[in-house]
Write a structure and sequence with these properties.
Rossmann fold, 24% strand, six-stranded mixed β-sheet, 2 domains
């Protein structure tokens, strides 16, 4: 049980600001809050709200630009590293080491005897019901097993605060229930749980208090009983400011539904780890329109992107391109069937970070003419880079560019192909106002030239101002939004995105 004589606050944040010097992005701004002992504190916010940055600051693996984070021992980040354990959404285990070696990895415990440590870890597994083969190489673990390994590591190192980053994302419904039972037990034993989630129904089930971030700023920390699902949604998405979104930047196109759609998904289902991630998804995309699909990425947008880029295959259903069944779709077939693709993950999917700008653009330049192909490529790339206002040199490695300039390069390359179908995911992430406006104008120009555009975005303004038609993907279900005053606004769509309307 928790020690009732201990101070109630285990961590205090005062005016925390984090600015990344390489790009000037203010990820967290003037955040002040207290974290209590033996509580479950939910941290909520959209993608890019600052949740991950704040957790790295709290865990001591990043130093704040401004402000102070206090523990009972002091303000140095080394005290936070001793205090806080983090279970990451994306695995951070060493694949060539065993589960046990990953658990004991790190300096916290110093030198130790293997047999004694084995007994300690086994006791933790038995006490909390966390079975796992300690001799198994980490590279063979499933996503739920990786999470279990990181939990065991945090418990063995006796962390008082445990951060769970989107912990249910890779779990089945029964595993979710097991996790919640464990969280409640840890709280009873005096642990503090920071529960990062975008799922309102899970937060309402688990949390004592709820903190909401939006665009790097803390919107408030409230007792769960004082917030309704709609309150949480409005804090995450923002109040409607009265802006009319009944017209796009360019008036919506009159649709001729008798013409053949360039892209059609019919009854698409996708399951993973026993969970239905996409549920009966059907839609049509026509030439010369922008179909916006909004939502929170973990609620299904990532699976739509993976599906249409050929990374995963649906469990059932059909994908038609220009009226023809293109199943199974692969990355090669995506390109072959005239689809330009601007991914959300720029470096792993949109570019080769080790190659130069010119080499990343070379797909646009055929090997024609006399003389050295490389010299001609560099000459052409210099002109193209200048025209597109990309801040970089033709022979510069892409990984050394800022995120915004990498995005400019990818967008310019994909639009230059003039493919009949453009599939774009989170196109304005990391762009400044000027670059964002230019990008939106580029998309509208492509639309006016008859290109069909499927826009996946978590940005409500982008969705409402660019889309001819819009739909929301939440909990795997797709809902079409009517272009009416009642529905075409932040409040209505925000509740659809977060699932607050279903609670």
């Amino acid at each position: 049980m928790a020690d009732e004589t201990a101070p109630s606050n285990i961590l205090e944040l005062e005016n925390i600001t984090q600015i990344f010097p390489e790009n000037g992005i203010r990820a967290c701004s003037n955040i002040s809050m207290v974290i209590r002992r033996a509580e479950i504190l939910a941290i909520m916010g959209e993608n890019g709200a600052g949740k991950s940055t704040l957790m790295f600051l709290i865990s001591g693996f990043m130093d704040e630009t401004e402000g102070v984070i206090r523990t009972s021992e002091g303000t140095d980040s080394v005290y936070r590293r001793d205090l806080v354990g983090m279970v990451h959404q994306k695995p951070l285990l060493a694949g060539n080491l065993t589960v046990m070696e990953n658990i004991i990895l790190g300096p916290e415990k110093g030198f130790f005897r293997r047999d004694r440590i084995l007994n300690e870890i086994t006791e933790i597994q038995e006490h909390y019901g966390l079975p796992l083969d300690l001799n198994l190489k980490a590279r063979y673990l499933t996503a739920p097993q990786i999470q279990r390994c990181e939990l065991i590591r945090a418990l063995w190192k006796n962390k008082k605060i445990i951060i769970l980053d989107e912990p249910t994302a890779s779990l089945s419904p029964s595993q979710n229930e097991e996790l919640f039972s464990l969280i409640f037990r840890l709280k009873e034993e005096g642990k503090t749980i920071l529960f990062i989630s975008h799922k309102i129904h899970e937060v309402i089930k688990a949390a004592d208090r709820i903190a909401v971030l939006r665009r790097g700023e803390l919107q408030g920390v409230s007792e769960k009983k004082d917030l309704s699902p709609s309150d949480i949604s409005r804090q995450m998405i923002g109040e409607d400011d009265g802006t009319e979104y009944l017209e796009t930047i360019s008036p919506p196109r009159d649709m001729d539904t008798d013409e053949m759609p360039i892209l059609e998904l019919s009854d698409i289902e996708y399951s993973e780890l026993g969970n239905r991630r996409l549920k009966d998804i059907s839609f049509k995309l026509y030439p010369g329109e922008i179909l916006g699909m909004g939502g929170i990425r973990e609620n299904g947008l990532t699976f739509i992107e993976d599906l249409l880029s050929g990374i995963i295959q649906p469990s059932s259903g059909t994908i038609f391109i220009n009226g023809k069944n293109r199943m199974p779709l692969s990355p090669y077939k995506v390109r072959r069937n005239g689809i330009s693709y601007i991914p959300a993950d720029r470096l792993s999917r949109g570019a080769d970070p080790e190659s130069s700008l010119a080499e990343n653009l070379s797909v646009l330049k055929r090997q024609t003419g006399k003389g050295s192909y490389r010299k001609r490529l560099i000459h052409w790339a210099k002109i193209f880079i200048k025209e597109q206002d990309i801040k970089g040199e033709a022979e510069q490695q892409v990984k050394t560019l800022s995120g915004g300039n990498i995005q400019k390069m990818i967008v310019a390359r994909e639009l230059e192909k003039t493919a009949p179908l453009l599939f774009v995911s989170e196109p304005s992430w990391g762009l400044d106002f000027k670059s964002r406006k230019k990008l939106h104008n580029q998309l509208l120009k492509a639309r006016s030239e008859g290109i069909a555009i499927l826009l996946l975005t978590t940005d409500l303004e982008e969705l409402l101002s660019l889309s001819d038609r819009a739909c929301i993907l939440s909990d795997g279900f797709l809902t079409e939004i009517e272009r009416s005053e009642e529905q075409w606004n932040r409040n209505f769509i925000g509740e659809k995105m977060t699932g607050a309307d279903r609670i």
